[in-house]
Write the structure tokens for this entry.
Amino acid sequence: MTELALFNNFFDTALRNVVHDWDFGTSFALPKVDMKEEKDAYTMQVDLPGMSEKDVNVELDHNVLTISSHHEESTEEKTDKAAEKDAGKYLIRERHVSKFTRRFTLPDDVNSEHVSASFKNGVLTVSIPRKEIAAPKRIAITAA
């Protein structure tokens, strides 16, 4: 397998073909991903603005790379009624909880022991080194 197979959200893929102008990636909180294939490795970059490395989980299990996040904003409860009146109240609050999960099936030439990830300026970079796949072995047939 030379290309990466992506397990994308059904609605992201199916509805994108029907409604071209709507950005389903941001609407459904799916981060944008770039994947680059190089001679010795694959490099994945994931845009995660407003997040830190503590908000993100990266797992590799049986050549399936899972990147996920579950982030809840903490809210301060005010007991002073005068302070609460001055602070105002929310009319709409959509940023309270954010979560996503993206799964990628990696090729057979991935060296899973040396996968690494780093986070800088809202971008998660996952380095996935490649290993050489053994060529098929020809087996000699003997006469019985």
Remarks:
- Residues 1-12, 20-27 have pLDDT under 50 and may be disordered.
- The chain has three helices and eight strands.
